[in-house]
Design goal:
With 268 residues, the protein is mainly α. It has one domain.
Length: 268
Amino acid sequence: MMLSLPSPYVIRKENNLDTYLAGLAAHAAPIIAIILAAFLQSITGFGLIIVGAPLLLLFYDPKLVVPCMLLIAVCGNCVQGLMYIKQAELRLIGWLVLGVVLGQPLGLWTFNFFSSDSLKIFISAAVMIALALNQMGRWHVRECHRNTVITGFFSGFTSITTGMGGPPFLIYLANIKIPVDRIRATCFCYFFLCNSTSLLAFHFSGLSLAPAFGEFIYLLPGLVIGIIIGHLCYSYIPKKIISRLIFLLLYATSLYTIATTLWTKYGM
C-alpha cells in the first residue's frame, strides 16, 4: 500500500498560513485600532488616518506609521470611492489634488529634516487653533478655486509629514455648502487620490515602503471588518451626528496626539 505524501508546495503553503495567523494574533491591538478607524470612515467619509495614525503610534515608530497608514487608506478609499464616485464633487476634488501635488515637495523636505514628534505637535496645535477660530465665528473660508488649491496644498503637506491630510480638507468642508451624502463620497475619492500621490512621492524620493507593506498585510483584515460594520450601521445613524463628528474627532485626535507625544518625549 502506497502512502500519499504532501508535496513541498502544500507544506510551504501551510507553514505560510500558520505564520500569518500567528502574526495576526500578535497584531491584535493594532488591528482593533484599524477596525475602529475604518468604522468611523465608513459612516463619515473620513477618520481612517485621523483616528488610526495616533492609535498606531502606540505600537510603531512614527515614521513607519505614516506610510503604513497611507497604504491602508489607499486600499480602503479605493473600494469606497468606486462605490460612491457618482455622488462625489469631482470638480472640487480636481482643484484640491492640484494643491496636493504642489504641497508634497515641501512636505517631503520637512519629513526628512524635522523629527516626527516636532511635526505632530506643531500640526495638531495648528488644527486645534483653526477649529477654535472657526467655531467662534471669527474665521470663515470662502469657497473658490484659490482657496481650494490652498487647502489641497496644506493637505498634501500634512499627508506627507504626518500621514494625516484630512484636517485642512475637513476644515474647508465645514465652511462650504455640500450635502452630507456628497461630503462622504467626496472624502472617499479625494483621500484616495491624496494618499496615492503621497505614496508615489515617498517612493520616488527613495523611501523604502517594504517595512510598511509588511505591517499593512497584517492590518488589512481590520480594515475590511471595520468597513463592513460601518456600511451595515450607516443607515441607522442620524445624519446630524455624522456632521458633528467632524469637529469632535479633530479635537480629540489633536489633543491625544499632543499629549502622547509630550508624554513619550519628556515624561510629562
